[in-house]
Amino acid sequence: MPVFGDLLVRRFKCLYPLSSGEEAFLRTMWSRTSDFSARQDIYYEGARPDSSALLLSGLACRYRLMSSGTRQIIAFIVPGDLFDTQSFLLRTLDHGIASISPCTAGLIKHKTLMEITRSHHGIALGLWKATLIEGATSREWIVNVGQRNAHARIAHVMCEIYARLAVVGHTADGGIPWPITQSALGDATGLTQVHVNRTLKGLRSDGLITLENRWLTIHDWDGLCRRGEFENRYLHLSPAA
Amino acid sequence: MPVFGDLLVRRFKCLYPLSSGEEAFLRTMWSRTSDFSARQDIYYEGARPDSSALLLSGLACRYRLMSSGTRQIIAFIVPGDLFDTQSFLLRTLDHGIASISPCTAGLIKHKTLMEITRSHHGIALGLWKATLIEGATSREWIVNVGQRNAHARIAHVMCEIYARLAVVGHTADGGIPWPITQSALGDATGLTQVHVNRTLKGLRSDGLITLENRWLTIHDWDGLCRRGEFENRYLHLSPAA
DNA sequence: CGGTTCGTTGATCTATCTCAATTAATGTGG
DNA sequence: CCACATTAATTGAGATAGATCAACGAACCG
User: Fold this and answer.
1) Does B67 touch chain A (CB under 8 A)?
2) Is the pLDDT of residue A186 over 90?
3) What CA–CA distances, in Å, run from A188 to A79, A104, B74, B94, B143?
């Protein structure tokens, strides 16, 4: 597992060019790491954390609970993602954050963030840019649940997670770890667990994917992208200019 | 119609406390205004504008076009909203922006933004915070299309627009101007125009609203909020601490 | 190895879509 | 300012993607 500082610097270089002084600073700015087991709340909705965090390993999600008891997953968080810079400026969290698989996060005090953004304009812009990319991803999710049918929604989620894990080198043999249960996938796509099950069956029998032992293999990347109308532009993955 | 500088300062004061120097600076930072007639593209998807903008009057929206020809409206833009700081850091716009009613926008050069965010940390944080609120709104929309039925979706959109217009004083007699056609409302909620029509009929006959002459009157605010599960927390409307 | 969670399948139901036609507004050129 | 063209709203009838209810087998976990 990469060291906190390495991952943070690597992520930042995709956001904004770093001077060597800034890079050194980034390597020292975190306070500690913490571990979470699977399906555990990391922050509750309404929490007022005094730190933001960087996911080091595992998979997590942002979610909202409805009064009817259903859950909408609003985003997935993969290693290398900063979360949540949200609470740094908005104080109270308007959604919960939970682990999906066991995960590790490194914490960065809001006070430290405030100091570094004051003294290093480039880092402030980089962080800001990260929140813009998060926003772009949310917009893509609105489109996903608003406009696409079940097959496309699920294909799109798979493509997104694959593409984001690829950046941090967490893919192997055209596949990725897949700790997401069918009911969590339903929560992310606004579908029933039962319907997710039938839809996955369809994607499997179309030869696009296989899904076994918590591992997703993508047999036909282009086909899956076409099915999910996935274009990675919104993720802004290419390194910073 | 309020002057550009006034509106900008007023908006900023909701985001971050301003020194009097910063306030003066804000009043001079814009370059010019431009006007748009109804249903006109302001920026195309893929555009690379060299300015961000502040909406002075009218109503606009962000949208994405699907290959099938359908449109998903991703957000509404009301007077006082900055758009889009998106392109300031991400360069190319990943969605289009169009007017709904005739509107006026004031432009701010990216170059100016870059300078002011470098020299004024508070303004940088304020702008960043604005993009975080936009992100929170997008997440709320994911929930809206992912979890709520037609009645609730439409009620929620009405509550959001009312609440946001109230902040800038664009309400009158418990109502707001409503230039949004049924088919645009369908694009925002992921519903068919026909179904929007029937759903509006339901909201009307439940005594929650009336909708005539492009004017929405809300007869039962609490009832409408309940129907749409609307809670304004995510809009972060209260003035900056 | 027994309990809980997760995945699979069947049968039925319903919110919303589609297609289609009509009326009401709104806008425009002469 | 009117006739005509276009866009927006309304209503009906029929189709369907996805929901709901229910039951059971498979995997995982302490």
Assistant:
1) yes
2) yes
3) 19, 22, 18, 22, 10
Q: Which nucleotide is nearest to A152 (CA to C1')?
A: D17
> Closest Cα to residue B72, out of B19, B16, B135, B144?
B144
Q: Are A44 and A18 in contact (CB under 8 A)?
A: no
pLDDT above 90 covers a percentage of chain B that reads 83
Distance from the Cα of A189 to chain B's closest Cα (Å) equals 7
Q: Which band of pLDDT confidence, cut at 50, 70 and 90, is reported for residue A58?
A: very high
Above 60 in pLDDT, residue A228? Answer: yes
User: pTM score, two decimals?
Assistant: 0.96
Contact yes or no for A189/A227 (Cβ under 8 A): no
Q: How many CB pairs under 8 A join A and B?
A: 123
Which of A143, A148, A235 would you mutate first to test chain B, the one with the most B CBs within 10 A? A143
CB contact under 8 A, B142 and A143: no
Four-residue CA torsion sign, B159, A98, A10, A118? positive
pLDDT tens-digit map of B62-75: 999 999 999 999 99
**Other CB atoms closer than 10 Å to residue B237's CB: what's the count?**
13
